[in-house]
Design brief:
The protein has 420 residues and is α/β, with parallel strands linked by helices. Helices cover 35% and strands 18% of the residues.
Length: 420
Amino acid sequence: MESPIVITGMGLVSPLGVGVDAVWRRILAGKSGIRALQRFETGEFPVRIAGEVPDIASDEAGLDAERVLPVKERKKIDLFTLYALAAAEEALTQANWHPDTDHDQDSTATIVATGIGGFPTITQAQRTMEEKGVKRLSPFVVPAFLANLAAGNVSIRHKFRGPLGCPVTACAAGIQAIGDGMRMIRSGEAEVALVGGTEACIDPLSLGSFHAMKALSTRNDAPGAASRPFDRDRDGFIMGEGAGLLVIETLRHAEERGATPLAVLSGYGTTSDAWHITAGPEDGSGGAAAIRRAIRMAGLDPSEISYVNAHGTSTPVGDRVEVRALRSVFGNALPGIPVSSTKSATGHLLGAAGGIEAVFSALAVMTGQLPPTINLDNPDEEMADLDFVPNQSREHEVHHALCNGLGFGGVNAAIVVSRV
């Protein structure tokens, strides 16, 4: 029998702070990481709120960038890489995975997804060229913005010489990175994999472009109440940023080296809608197919899923389609399964969403506590029969949790996280 794939380390950088313990405490307490934008002057800009990662000067659980990388080196990378480096350090420390032999370094994969990569680096370089000329461009522009450079810099820092990958599949990318790592371990290409996602594209052009699609909330006067998954008054998602990374390996490998297994990655599934560039089919059939594949790989019946961490972005169409996908899979049993969207507290981290939400799913399994869907005051009538864990966390025994990721282009991905 194949040895199960287990999680042995987790790392988080998020709008709720940095560090798994601090972020988990805050999300269970119903805190929101959505605030008025600080990174650039908004003026009359239509979107003036976002889920920015706090720094250590403003928040005791904020990011201490100097500890991650000196200022001189930070100038050579984009924020999405900085966040990945910070999350990787925490995950690898918890897993106690610091390989110093050729074999272990050669057999460690680094699969770090992103939706967009170093977008702010690109927009700033364009401004520099227009205002100061092409000769003023930095030689680090390209290696800063390339999407795979978060994975590249992490692998260089830790000397991981196994497979390196970077799914760039929009909002499903983080979960696909986890699935890719699982496959590499199963195929024998790697014994350990650092997997997840990172994102940092809070920028005037990205916000303006998503606003042009009518995808973002404009609830600027009430930032903490703006992300409202499944609520009838939801008006779009809130852009967030950060990173969520996991160290995964077989249970046998973990036990042989004395590592503590935290949770089991028991299933993964991914599909394409082949339908529309920004919207899934109304019946949610593509997402449902990915969920079924994940549950089937886990060797489970849908009735054995005891919690769903939904993609739940807070867009009118997206939430509706996801609920229809869940109804297709779970049928009349769905009202009895707790479903929550942690994007209500963090905003939508795009390519990093699956990484941090996989961590939240694992923590639900490990602790028997469900993170709430905050700001859910009036459930959409179509979903009023469902249990979205509204506004307050709850104790609930979780043996198997489902975590969904759905992205533009019709990409769907899902994982099942189970108790050890």
